[in-house]
Amino acid sequence: MDKIITTGKFKDKPPFRDSSSAVVPAKVMCHNCSKLKIFLGALAFSFFAKGFSGSYMKSMSSQIERRFEISSSIFGIIDGSFELGNLMVMVLVSYLGPRVHRPKVIAVGCLIMSLGAFLSVMPQFLMGRYNYERIAVTVDNSSSSVSACSPAPSVGHSVSDATETPSTMKNSGLVRSSGMFGPTLGFLLGSFCASLWVDIGVVDIDAININPKDTRWVGAWWLGLLICGAVNFIASLPFFFLPYSLTKEGEDENPKKISHLPVQGDHCKTDPPAQPQLKFSEAVKDFLPTLKKLFGNPVFLVYVFLTILQYNSLVGLITYETKFMEQQFNVSVAKAIFLVGVILLPITILGMFLGGYLIKKFKLHVTGMAKFACISFIVAYLLNLLYFMCNCEVLQLAGLTVPYSGFKQLSSPKNSFMASCNADCSCKMDQWDPVCGDNGITYMTACFAGCKSSTGMGKNMVFHNCSCVEGHEHGHGNASAVLGQCQRESCTKAFPYFLALQTACAFILALGGTPTYMIMFRSVSPDLKSFAVGIETLGGRILGGLPAPIYFGALIDETCLKWGTKSCGGSGSCRIYDTKAFRNVYLGLIAGLRAGCCVLYMVLCVLIMRRFKRDDKEITDIKNAEETINKESVTVNKKEVLPGAKTSEESEETYM
User: Fold this and answer.
1) Is the pTM of this model over 0.90?
2) 3-state SS string over 93-148?
3) Across 622-651, average pLDDT
C-alpha cells in the first residue's frame, strides 16, 4: 500500500520548507546544493582555464614572431583568428542557451580549446630546431684569434650555435572573479617559459651566445601550450556528468510537492526533469524581433559601442605591452611578462573587487554606477596621457640612427651601414649579430665595426682592433667591442616610474569596470539578459578582439628600423625599432581609442539619468498616491467605528 512521505522518515536532519510552505527533506536539499556547488566550481575552473590559455598566448607574441620570423601584423592575424571561432557559435549559443544542454556545450567548448592548444605545438616539432642569425668569422691558423673583418667575401648564413645532445548574482561575481586569476598565472607561466631556450632538452645551453635580452632569443613557447591544453581538458570533464538543469533552492526535482509523493517501502518514485524539445524554426523566427527589441534600447546600444572601443584599446595594449617594455625600457621579455603577471593583473583584480564592494556598500543605483564609472575612466585617461612623458632615447646604431663617428659614410638607400672604416671587410647586409663598441655605439655586426681580432669564447667573446670604433677618441688598435646591444641607462632608470603610473591607471580603470558591467544588466529586461551578454561579447570580440592586434601590429611594423632575414630568404621579424615612433604609435592609438570611450561614457550617463530619473519619479508618485489612499481609507474606517468598539489593531494588542 502506498505511503505518504513525512518528515519523520528523515530523522537525521530537520525538514525545510520551500516557497509554497511544502515540506522539503534535508537530504534532497543537500543533494541539490552539492550539485550546484559542483557546477559553480566547474564553471569557475573553466573561466580560469580560458583566461590562463588566452593570457599565455598573448605573452608569447614576441617569441612566436622570432621563432617563425614573422611580422607583428602577421602575429596579429594569428592572435585575432581566435575570435573567429567565437563568431561562429557565440550568438547561437547565447540565444539558444536556455533550450540546450548547457553543461555539455561548455564541455565541448573546453575540449575544442584543449585540442587547439595541442595542435598549435606541432610546428615546433615539424620545423626542426631554431637557428638564429650569427656572423661567420675567420679563424687565424697562427693563433686562437678570430676575425670578423676579412678582405675575402665571408659566407653569411644562419648557423646553429647549440650542440646536439640526446545561480545568484553573488555566485556570478565569484565565477567571473575566479576567471581573473587565470591570466595572472598565465603570464607567470609565460615568464618562466620565455626564460628557457626554445630547444631545451635537445641542445647544449652553454653553447648559446645570446641572452634573454637579445632580440633573437626565443623562449620555450610550446611548453606552456602543452600545459594549457591539459588544463582545458581537465576543465571539460565535470560538465559531462552534470544534469540538464539544477533545481532552485527550496524546490524539488519533481514538479509535484514531495510531501504528497507516494512511495512503496523506502524508495521514492521520482523522475528526472524532462528536457524541453527545441524547435529550431521557432527559435529562428523569434531571433530578429528579439534582436530589434534589444538594439531599440539606446542605453544598451551606446554600451555596445563603448565595449567595442574598450576591447580595441585593451586587446592592443595587452598584445604588444611586453614588446613595448622590451624595446622602450631595455628589459627582457621574460621580465616584462613577469611584471605584468605579478603587478598589473593582481592590482586589476583588486580594483574590480573594490568596485563591487563600493556598489554594495553605498547601495548605488544605476545612475550612481554610471557616474562612478564615468569619473573613474576619465581620471584614468588623464593619467594615461602622462605616459608620453616617459621618454627614452633611440638606440645609437651606427649607420642607421647615428653616423659612423669620424669616418666618411658611404651612404645609399640600401647600403647605409657601410663606411670607409669597414669598406674592405666585405660585410653581409642581411646579418644581425650586434656588438657594443666601447664608444657607446651599437654596430649591426662585429664586421661592420671593423674588428680584426677577438679573445674569449661564447658569451664572453670580446672583439679588438675595431677600426670603426676607434674614431678620434681612441688610439690605433685600442678600440674593442662586446657581444650584444649597448645598454641605455636612462631608459632603465625611467622604467620604475612607467610601471608605477601604469599600475595606478590599471587600478582606477578596474574600479569602474564592475559598475560598467552592471549597467548592462540593469538596462535590459530579464528575458533578454542572456542574449544581451552574447551580443555585447560578440561585438567586443569581433570588432575589437579581431582587428585590434592586426592594425596595432601593422602600425608598429612601420616603426621597424632593421628587419631580420629568414634562412630561406625574405624578411623575418623585426630586430630593432625606432623607439620614439614606436611609443607615439602604441600610446597614441590607446589614447585615441580611450578618448572615444570618454565621450561615450558621458553620453551613457546622460541617457541613464534621463531614463531612470523618470522611472524613479514615477515610482515616487505611485508611492505617494498609495500613501494618500491608505491615509484616506484609515480616516474613513475611523469614522465608521461605533463608540466603544475596538479596532482590529487594538484587538490584536489585547491577545498579545
Assistant:
1) no
2) HHHHHHHCCHHHHHHHHHHHHHHHHHHHHHHHHHCCCCCCCCCCCEECCCCCCEEC
3) 52
